[in-house]
What we know:
- The protein is mainly beta.
- 13% of the residues lie in helices and 42% in strands.
Amino acid sequence: MFTGLIAGVGRLAAREARGGDARLVIDTGTLPFDGVQLGESIAVNGCCLTVIGFDAASFAVDASNETLALTTLGRLAIGAPVNLERAMLPTDRLGGHLVSGHVDGLASAQRRWDDARAVRWRFAAPRPLLRYIAHKGSVCVDGVSLTVNAADDTGFEVALIPHTVEHTAFRALQVGDAVNIEVDLLARYAERLQATKDWT
């Protein structure tokens, strides 16, 4: 589990074809990396991936075809910045919201504008995902926990404070770019409970 509070920005250093899928090498950049262990989970742009090798400045992960097809990781350019977060500890403060690192789908950056010191973004998203995105609710965009400022049947809007822009890969985002989206866990479970309320 993750919080959606980005701990560092790294970059995609390499993508190697491996038996039909891919191995990714991620430079850790500003991510605190002490005590890393084989098998631990690190969220890369919101995708929960397992560390299968590392050195002092990078780590390697295997990405399945499902991950490559359903997230932005299969299309990122080498050198592209990525948001990084190590899995939370039981003693961590939950400053964002509960994030599983299981990407639900992609959205497209549709519009950017300044709002005082904040930066506002509008994302176009598929309708099956938008049903779970609510005004003042939480959404995870490329691994970043954000509050929804507006939502309708074609997309949603968020506002990024200067700290978020400065300390995430959002500073490199361009209109038209694809982003990974994870909707709020509670929304999905609430829908499932409602759908199965008559089960005995």
